[in-house]
Amino acid sequence: MIENLRGRKPTLIDMEKCRRSAVVIPLIEKDKEYEVLFEVRSDKLKRQPGEICFPGGACEAYEIPEEGAKREICEELLIHPEQVEIIAPMNILFTPFNMVIYPYLGMLKGYNDTFGKDEVQEVFSVPLKFFLEEEPEIYYNKIYTEPSEDFPWQKVEGGSKYRWASGTYPVLFYEYEGRVIWGMTARIMNSAAKTILETR
To answer: What is the DSSP string of 88-104?
Structure first.
């Protein structure tokens, strides 16, 4: 039984309780320069209406993240799978809110500003150079533990006076021509920009 563990690849503890999502950071070519394509979420959506994001969403149980990312971008931008070239996976974002997001840098081919109006209000692009040269504003939200009402304090050394660990969660903001790109989208973009710069 123990021998069967040799070669095992680790995953996150409680991964099965996390919502797996995948997004594509889509690049398009304009005037021989790369630009990053963003969506503005439809104001009809229940979650985050009107916010700026990357194409993507929840992975189906049967999908690996790259498959989910490709399916979502095709559905949202009304394009065919052959129009999306996945270049590389970017760094995975794990949030304190039971979410794991798998970003992929991708190239769009023959894209003509199409999108599904049920989920997307509009699309726009920002020069990749902007993210490579500009640093975002960063603010920090406090993260702390609030035990449940039925928490068994009698089983904990120190009881209800136990000192829980606390932390901070960075919230990033980019502003470009009146557009505010923030939150998880900004954090994913910032990480991708750093990764790209590392390859120079």
So the answer is: EE-PPEE-TTSEEEEEE
